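User: Some background: our group keeps a shared notebook of sequences we're curious about, and every so often someone picks one and asks for a predicted structure to add to the entry. Today it's my turn. The entry only has the sequence so far, pasted here. Could you supply the structure so I can complete it?
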Amino acid sequence: MAEYANVRSTTAGIRTQEIDQGLRAHMNKVYGLMSAALFASFAIGYVVSATPALMSLIFGTPLFYVVVFGPLAFVLISSFAFERLSVAALNGLFWAYAALTGASLAMIFAMFATTDIITGLLFTSVAFLGLTLTGYTTKRNLGPIGQVGIMMAWGLVAIGIGSMFFGGMGDAMFMLFNIAILGVFAVLTAYSTQEIKNTYIEARTVGGPEADMFLEKAAIIGALQLYISFIAIFRSIMYIFMPQE
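Assistant: Of course. Here's the predicted structure to add to the notebook entry:
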């Protein structure tokens, strides 16, 4: 019995080590995808903002609604059709989301000085790093507060869409709106990081032939979740703290 206990303990240790190594690789993949998408989005935003013809085409025609609502549609498709979509399809949706978001960021480049945008990116990166590290290392279950954050995020989306069609927001309301976005997506950054970590551990613990495929898709969704939070925090920081030109 003692020999069996020793073997089981050793096997469990090896299994834990494998999961730890795999988790690091998985998180690196998620952060790598997110970072590549952010780079692509900001590059697209800069190019569009520097091209008057593209600015007129996107923000002066019905194409504006595609840029605004297209990413929302992609999120809904990715969420509700996750099991049916292939890795390639999810990847396509992810990069289409990044491209449309990049086009919408052209407005940020048009409204703010380049130095302020760089400053905003630095602030966002520092805040994001702290929040995602908190989500990765905390022992506290962030699930309950994360679920509240998701509901609040959809509420803010509804308010934002409503303001587009019903006269917009006053300056004070717009400031409060962005403060709320900043707070909600700060929470969601930590929550999403913990969820990505836990999803990997659960999938590897259960194992099976479908685990690898599931985690390939989960990495894309995780990158999308963190990407959305980063962009939301960045935009809020720009509107709250940076002077417009």
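Suggested note for the entry: Residues 2-49 form the longest helix (48 residues). Residues 2-241 form one domain.
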